[in-house]
# Entry
Amino acid sequence: MARGEAVFRLRGRELSGDELKTLLVMAWTGWNALLMSYIVMMLGKARAMRVVEALKAKGLVNEYRASSRLRVFALTEEGRAVVREFVEEARRLGVRCPA
# Structure
């Protein structure tokens, strides 16, 4: 994580803002998965590569390859649990969140 970057502590893990943002988008699309190209559009190529590697290392997403160019990242059970915990905490603080 970059110096000065927001850090979120959920389920005993530290997540950067970009990592949490990626998990939330994955969960709220309804698919629980994103193509790498969508993550790149959201974060930029260098940040996207760093974020997905960090999420894989933390066991929050799995990577699937349909071909050498098509990479899909799907939330693991633990990844979904992190999103649920974040949403519950946000609602407790009065923030309205999608289901």
